[in-house]
Amino acid sequence: MSEIHKDRSLKSQAAVSALWAGGARWGMRALGVVNIGVLARILSPDDFGLVAIAMGIVAAFELFLEFGSEGYLIRNPERNDEDYHTVWTLNVARGIILGVIVCGLAYPVSLWAEDPRLFSILMWLGFILSLFGFRNVEVINFQKNLRFDLEFILLVGAQVLGVVAAIFVAFYYRNYWALIVGYGVRQIAMVIISYLMIPKLPRFGFTNIRKLFSYSIWIMLGNIMFGLAVKLDALILRNYLSLAAIGFYSVGRDLSSMVTSELSAPIERALFPAISKTIADGNDAGYVFCQGAAAILLFLMPAGFGLATVAPEFVYLTLGSQWGTVANVIVIFALAESVFVLGPNLKIAILIGGKTRWIFFRSIYIASLRLGGLIFGAYQAGLIGAATGCAIATVAITFVDFLLAKKLIGVEVKTFVGSIWRVVVSTLVMTAICYSLSKNIPVEQTVLNYLLKLFGIALAGGSIYALTLTSLWVLCKRPLGPEHQVFSVLKLKPHIDRGVDALSSGVLARFGNDK
Fold first, then answer.
1. pLDDT tens-digit profile of 406-417?
2. Cβ distance 252 to 330 under 8 Å?
3. 277: burial class by Cβ within 10 Å (0-12, 13-18, 19+)?
4. What are 328-360's pLDDT values in tens digits?
5. Distance between CA atoms of 114 and 112, rounded to whole angstroms?
6. DSSP 3-state of 441
7. Residue closest to 190 by CA, chosen among 147, 231, 161
8. CA 433 to CA 424: how far, in whole Å?
9. Which of 54, 200, 210, 25 lies closest to 119 in space, CA to CA?
């Protein structure tokens, strides 16, 4: 196979893998929206705020002890059974340590927050974390081999069980335990399913522990700073906001991330092994970086701007009229996270280049900007101020990320702008038209009317975006880029090529005859 065909095959495989990974992520998030939509009609904002504090602590310590060892298995082509045994042993140890830490924090956190319910919540979460550490590490091969169809089964299957359990408990008990039970069932189900899919039992061993830690130490330090900045929002906001306001904040942030930052995650997962192989073959790292950023932005930006346009209707349909305040939070986060495109790709480039210490340095400025924006905003303007402060910090982080990418891998402004400008222009055209439609189509506040309005605007927005993007791509003579890959995967590129060629021939013939 020639190098050109090999490169095209790799890119096509990465594109298909991204679709499967996106399907898994979106399947989980769609189920998550259903879960939140049902629970929001049964539970109170206080329940969501209470659990947000506990889950923020869990998520932060999960990052504190994230060794990045599974990333080592993906990156290392010479991995062996001992590597897998060592990583599994580290995961088990990490889970047990996390469980002990969270259980140990249960009493002091409940005293600090002046809410004794946090004690029992954190004790149960610590137990769940300990069990989750025993998941089968062999499932990392799904990502390594770009078999995201199998990962889809694992992730979505566990999510379905968690959602069913949460809804059942919510109807029966009608309190915050529905959220905890749903989380616990999902985590434990993932452990069980991982062994059903790959019935291979790892064993305890620390043979390659030094090799793994030499790769992971900077990742772990970076995750500590990132955890402080991102995962402890609810705990920090307890000093400035009520439990209900924290509930509004956490639900709004989670819903916006379901169609913005979470959208980039499956593409990032698919790009990691693909870009690693591409750069290893000696290709231009800066060009690959820009193409990856454009691929993420291709979906991320229209999704975020589109969500901001229809946020009131979206909240009414998913949560109900009593959660109207969440719409403002969603608008702020959706717009900000739509431009947070460089972070995932930059992290890939850092990991592939082996410069893991830069993850730590990057996490320092992320923590500084985000914590500063959160605290200052909450102090000045409460709930909306906290969201706005985080949003401004996110935009600033994106700018600093570009400077870092330029320093590390030589990304040029011209190359980057050339990769993304068609997506940006198409998104702005779509947003302007959809915003006008949203404001000029008044409807009565009923579920059916809002559903029809949301569906109509989404259909119009998607069509306008696709048409504008395709037109710009054709006018630019169909360059290689994310549009090229999407059309190739959808089997549309040959039809577009023939259509453009036929149209061009017809125009030339007409002008020739006139002459």
1. 777 777 788 888
2. yes
3. middle
4. 999 999 988 887 766 656 666 665 555 667 777
5. 5
6. coil
7. 161
8. 15
9. 54
Span 266-320, pLDDT tens digits: 566 555 555 556 555 555 666 777 777 787 788 888 988 999 999 988 898 888 8
Cα–Cα dist 436/31, whole Å: 30
- Structure-token pair, residue 174: 């009608």
Q: Residue 511: CB partners within 8 Å, gap ≥ 6?
A: none
Q: Is the pLDDT of residue 214 over 60?
A: no
CA distances from 34 to 29, 156, 187, 322, 474 (A): 9, 13, 18, 17, 39
Cα–Cα distance, 512 to 515 (Å, whole number): 5
Contacts for 47 with CB less than 8 Å, ≥ 6 apart: 175, 176, 179, 247
User: What span, in angstroms and rounded, lies between the C-alpha atoms of 387 and 337?
Assistant: 12
The neighbour count for residue 7, using CB atoms within 10 Å, is 15
Six-digit token string for 432: 């302007």
Contact call for residues 469 and 301 (beta carbons, < 8 A): no
Q: Which residue intervals of 410-477 are DSSP H helices?
A: 413-440, 447-475
Q: How many Å from the N-terminal Cα to the C-terminal Cα in the chain?
A: 48
- Type of residue found at 143: Q
- Rg of the chain, C-alpha, whole Å: 24
Taking phi over 0 as left and psi of -120 to 50 as alpha, with beta for the rest, 68 belongs to left
Q: Distance between CA 211 and CA 464 in Å, rounded?
A: 51
The identity of residue 88, as a single letter, is W
DSSP class per residue in 136-199: -GGGHHHHHTT-HHHHHHHHHHHHHHHHHHHHHHHHHH-STHHHHHHHHHHHHHHHHHHHHHS-
Report yes or no: 325 and 191 within 8 Å, Cβ to Cβ.
no
Which residue matches tokens 């930059």?
346
Instruction: Tell me, rounded to whole angstroms, the distance of Cα 467 from its chain centroid.
Output: 26
